[in-house]
Amino acid sequence: MVRRGKAAVHEPTTARGQRTRQKLLDGAEEIFGEEGFERASIAAITGRAEVALGTFYVYFPNKQAIFSELLIELGRALRRRLAEATRGLDTRLAVEEAGCLAFLEFVQSHKNFYRIVRQAEFVDEALYRSYYQGLAKSYAEGLAAAVEGDEIADLDPETVAYMLMGIFDFIGMRWVLWEGQLPPEKLLQDVFRFIRGGLLRAPGGR
Amino acid sequence: MVRRGKAAVHEPTTARGQRTRQKLLDGAEEIFGEEGFERASIAAITGRAEVALGTFYVYFPNKQAIFSELLIELGRALRRRLAEATRGLDTRLAVEEAGCLAFLEFVQSHKNFYRIVRQAEFVDEALYRSYYQGLAKSYAEGLAAAVEGDEIADLDPETVAYMLMGIFDFIGMRWVLWEGQLPPEKLLQDVFRFIRGGLLRAPGGR
DNA sequence: ATGAAACATGAATCAATATTCAAGTCAACA
DNA sequence: TGTTGACTTGAATATTGATTCATGTTTCAT
């Protein structure tokens, strides 16, 4: 029999438990997004979730645990969405464009997404890195294949992955986060033109 | 006569005071970088600065004030450095390359820079935005001139500014922050090739 | 129907720390 | 050298909030 230092934190077995746990995750996403990790109090989270304070500790051992779970969940959801949005597209540029749009739309429907990811740098640095490393890795694989197939210029795939993530991140910040809307179509076209130019066989030396 | 709710927080008039205030700013940069705003305690800051706890409140009214001042200082220092590094260059692409390198080097010598900027989103959101908006504005002006002079493709300058900032930000994170070094020359060349491709007259429709 | 798991509750504990303040120390000038 | 304003000190205050726990309540298999 395993002895634990603390009361066991169990996965809920009943439907009621599942619901409560989910309410806590939802509340936490909102509160963390609004206040940031440190200023988010457990009381605020349970308040938003409409459960009592103590209930929190039935499902999570501490504040950091629910945050980390949230980050993992959001990362998974984003990647699922991206895979879905780009499935079956046959040119790399089409993948980029669809992926960019899906990303921006995802952010728009998870406004607290950015803020949670950024907090993560201070809350759970290892997880923060693996979030980006994971994204970059699968991104780079797709790019490497496109390089292989001579579809795009021969640039280091990981480097390109980080550049593209940076572009999307900042465009998302500027428009979705600050203005609450997708960038106007005209600007989105400029984003795509820029990326297209960068990915296609670029001019050689200076 | 102006009445204040609190004891006046004065700028130091003597050299000793100047030194002490600066020690506090330096200590704060380190501690904020290491711990993040919320977890950074005033005691830790004064400890690092080697002054007594109470001394802090002689120079700053509260924790947020020193943080904001730090962000403003760092922003200023970065822009000064960028202006210096790109002064006199005559092609836009040369400006981009020199600016990119100067940025990465700046980050390397101010390791806590990133973390402070990112914390800012939660500590002083207005200042955080104006930090990026200020950078983007002067960036966009340079780009607009290059578009005007038909040196680069006709893309929305502000959009391009955010894309480039995103690229630099992520490359800096991946290499300088995570590896503690500038990207290998080979990768830097790929970054420049990508940017060159994006900025030059990009292929039209798909 | 009923007893045992599961689940829910919120007052109490306990540590951390931002900020204040009353009492010193220093440096320079008259 | 005595005086004064500038500067420094660190103990005391006051609040906040994470976490615990003893006590109810609900669910459901039998």
Biggest β-sheet of chain A: count, sense, barrel?
A: none
> Helix count of chain A?
9
Most extensive chain-chain interface? A-B, 47 and 48 residues
How many strand units of chain A?
A: 0
What is the arithmetic mean of pLDDT of chain A? 92
Quickly give the structural class of chain A: mainly alpha
Share of residues in strands of chain A: under 5%
Number of separate structural domains of chain A: 2
Morphology of chain A? elongated
Q: What is the CATH C level class of the largest domain in chain A, in words?
A: Mainly Alpha
CATH architectural group of the largest domain in chain A = Orthogonal Bundle
Task: Report how far the terminal alpha carbons of chain A are from each other.
Answer: 69 Å
In N-to-C order, the SSE pattern of chain A is HHHHHHHHH
CATH superfamily of the largest domain in chain A: Tetracycline Repressor, domain 2
Question: What is the percent of helical residues of chain A?
Answer: over 70%
State the oligomer: homodimer
For the CA atoms, what is the radius of gyration of chain A?
20 Å
CATH fold field value of the largest domain in chain A: Tetracycline Repressor, domain 2
Which blocks of ≥5 consecutive residues of chain A have pLDDT under 50?
1-7
